Amino acid sequence: MLTILAAFSHIVEFVISFSFLKTVFRIKSDFEKKILPYLSAIILCFWEYVAYIVFDSTIINIFSFFVAILILSLVFFNTKIVSATLVSIFLSIALTASEFLTMSLLSLGLGGGIETYKSSFLNFAITVIISRLIFCIITKMSEYAGFYLQGDKNVRIPVFLFLYPSTAIVILYIFWSVSAIYNPSRIISITIALASFAVLVSVFLTFTFYSRTSKKMDELYKEQSEAEKIKTDTAYYAILDKQNETLAMLTHDEKNHLLAIKAIANNPEVDEYINKVYGEIKEISMFGNTNNKYLDLLINKYQTECETNGIYFDCSIKTANLSFMDSTDLISIIGNILDNAVEAAENSKEKSIILSINKNGSFDILSCSNSCDHIPLIKGGKLITSKKTPGIHGYGIKSIIKTAEKYGGEVEWTYNDNIKTFSIIIVFTKNENL
To answer: Which of 160, 306, 393, 429 could form a disulfide with 311 if both were Cys (CB 3.0 to 4.6 A apart)?
Structure first.
């Protein structure tokens, strides 16, 4: 029975460790939604258990656990050897500390030696469960602390969440004391052991459920924030459009007044001055004429922003203007692309952005290239934000893909390390139903 219980303890520690690895690192894209990482974890767990049985050495057991976690990290997760080694060391220390802490506290409680936990099967079972419960708490606290230290201020360490496992440890300690003092019958011992196991499972499921719920709520928050941003931008561009219409009317009237003054004055100097002013007005009135007013407003905005930040901005919109897109979707996709481009270009040496929207047969092609001195961060085949305080940042890429797919668009991005340029290309398939 003790051998079976030891095997159970190894399985539990691997489940907790694997859950921790999935939170700290990301599974490689080649292994996403595949069973191989989990099968490998089971094999490594069995290998570690065999080492525990054969050598019966604490040092070898710790080392074999460290090697198993290191192999899992390097083979199936996106991480470097230094990070994988540090995480493996941390888990090995946390596991060892939880075991010795449990054995020491339980032995002190009854005044016996550190081997007191082996006095009966029930004592051994409760000791294993308490130690794995402490190990689970340590890893979960480290996960939340890690998120917070990485700058994600939206993560709050839920103190109430740790109240339940802390209470569970006290209850299990009472179970252990009762079994050690009163030597309960076999049926009661089995009942207590099953209840203790249920407590461990419920604590782990509570943390897992909370973690998944938090991720879903975070995604919902980001979607709502993005929707609010688009709504605000749409209202802003609508106001600008109204102002531009008023300005166009004033410009048109002004040109007529100037031409009238020119005819009345009949003076070469006045004629020359009016011709100069009229030419400037004509040039301004023709600015950004893409036959898509919201696209004009967007280009105007980012043209001004680039001039302010010393960024060269080249815009080529000749045979397509994305007129098939709703204004909110157009603002979302162009805004997110150029927001990212401006941020990267502003922090680069070349400081340049090239935007083009053209038609090729039945396809509308949007491409944007910007100078970018650093390779974009990619995890699981997906671009992620490089900002120190992510917040809702980094959701822009997801929004671009989601909006593009709405119009039959496919998104591709490349990074040329030789010329330090990041490019994103969206090919829209012509859809008559849009």
So the answer is: 306
Return the SS3 of 79.
coil
| Helix/strand/coil for 141 | helix
* Helix pair 395-406, 327-346: axis angle to 10 deg: 140
| N- to C-terminal Cα separation, the chain | 67
Query: 301, 329, 321, 326: which is closest to 399 by C-alpha?
Result: 329
| Domain annotation covers residue 267 | no
Asked if 357 contacts 325 with a C-beta cutoff of 8 angstroms, the reply is no
Q: What is the pLDDT confidence band of residue 281, given thresholds at 50, 70 and 90?
A: low
Burial call 13-30: b when 16+ CB within 10 Å, e when fewer: bbebbbbbbebbbbbbee
Which residue range(s) make up the domain with 432? 290-434
Average pLDDT for 222-231: 67
Cα dihedral 44, 47, 53, 54 sign: negative
Full-prediction pTM beyond 0.70? Answer: no
For position 432, what pLDDT does the model report? 46
Residues 14 and 137 in one domain: yes
Distance in angstroms (rounded) separating the CA atoms of residues 73 and 213: 25
Q: Do 112 and 207 lie in a common domain?
A: yes
Amino acid at 104: S
SS3 29: helix
Residue 350 CA to its chain's centroid (Å) = 29
Tokens of 188: 């009661």
CA-CA distance, 24 to 379, in Å (whole number)?
12
β-strand partners of 428: 364, 409
* Six token digits for residue 299: 């280009």
Q: Which two tokens stand for residue 118?
A: 């082996």
CA dist., res. 103 & res. 92, Å (int)? 17
Q: Which two tokens stand for residue 325?
A: 């897109």
- Domain of 336, CATH number, reads 3.30.565.10
- Tally of domains in the chain: 2
- Does one domain contain both 36 and 167? yes
Reported for 308-313, long-range contacts at CB under 8 A and 24+ positions apart, including other chains, are 309/342, 309/346, 309/351, 310/351, 311/342, 311/345, 311/346, 311/351, 311/352, 311/353, 312/350, 312/351, 312/352, 312/353, 313/352, 313/353, 313/355
Cα–Cα dist 190/150, whole Å:
45
pLDDT at 377 over 70: no
Is the residue at 265 inside a domain? no
